[in-house]
Design a protein that fits this description.
The complex is a heterodimer. Chain A is mainly alpha-helical. Chain A contains 8 helices and 3 strands, in the order βααααααββαα. Chain B is built from 4 helices and 10 strands. Chain B has a 5-stranded mixed sheet with strand order 2-1-10-5-6. In chain B, strands 3, 4, 7, 8 and 9 form a 5-stranded antiparallel sheet that branches. The chains are: A mainly alpha, B alpha+beta.
Chain lengths: ~270, ~160
Amino acid sequence: MMRILGPGTAGSHRGLWAGSVLFALIVLASVTVIWVLSADARREIDALATANSDSSQWSLAQAEVEFLSLENAVLAALAGESHGLSDVRKRFDILYSRIQTVMNSPSFEKVRLNPDVESAIARLNTFLGAAVSVIDGGDARLRNALPTLVTELRGIRGSVRTLSLAGVSVFALQSETQRIEVGGALFDLAVIVFLLMALLIVAVAILLFMTQSSRRKTSAVASARSHLQAIIATSDDAILVASPDGTILDYNGAAERIFGYPRDGVLGEKSPIC
Amino acid sequence: MNVILRRLAGLAVLLLPGPAFGGETLLTISTDVGPKTYDRAALEEMDSVTFRTSTIWTDGVQTFKGVSLVTLLKSADVSEGTLKAIAINDYAVEIPVSDAIEDGPIVAYARNGEIMTIRDKGPLWLVYPYDSNPDYRSEITYSRSVWQLDRLELIR
């Protein structure tokens, strides 16, 4: 009995290859989605890292402290303290600088939108602008103006208070918004981590399944082969297995007896029969 | 206007006859050795650094010119420890000496080509190049950016 071995199982190889490509594409797509999502979350967190409201609120409240220092200095100068006038000038300049900051700093943009703050800043600015000439004038002029300054300062005390109070509400709202943003960013990250975990679990499951099925196939092939081997070896008919080009792949005991060639001398040779 | 007045006043003082006039002390650095004072001329004599950056306290990009904190601390023989930076308005903050690096903070004495008055956050302002280094756009660095700076004390 003779058999020619067919040209293999190329069809199933092609199916495996297509499956691998599909799997790779799915992994690639998932990684891309996760990368985009996490980059988004990273950007949000970076933005929060450079957020700046703590010191701004302090800075705003400091306006009131510096205002009171000026008021104190003016009262001390009125009482005739020796460095009184230079202290008034220094405290005025410090308050002036603070109000300029509140007017120009981008950190106070939202605070300035508040109509109460707007009018408070306008009143403070009017006072500062009008007082500059007195402050920069001679000592005698400044000394004469001290009682007027006391009255004017008392008049704008409420405006300074408005500033620091407005800061509390605006910055509280701002940090509330920030908290919500942090929460959102962390939630995004949690979703990403969950997706990544799910993807990994699915990948592991697929690999496990593939390993097991390939192990099953291997053992099935092995048992079929040994089955076939047993049939070939114990057959009373001469069996010669050759590939399509005539190379002898197997050759049983009966064939050794019938053809008179030893098995070892024939395997791998071209068969003259084919 | 008041800048002009002050400059005129400064000129008047310079024109006064009498003993050599030392400039007004702008900065005092106190170490274990004792205090060392700097007037404007002393600061302007040192190697200067100029950079452009925006800040969270000013509108638009600013040009700051001053002495790098590294150079300044070197001149006072300070190489490690922590500084307490104190401002005219009594603001105070601790700054590690390790903050003083090349391309790091400077003690600015001019902003946009003009000297700074107290009304303008001067005469000295410790500024960091916030725009060129994202690490400097943090709450800690903002708190270390002392305007109206007038004293640096080495505390340990």
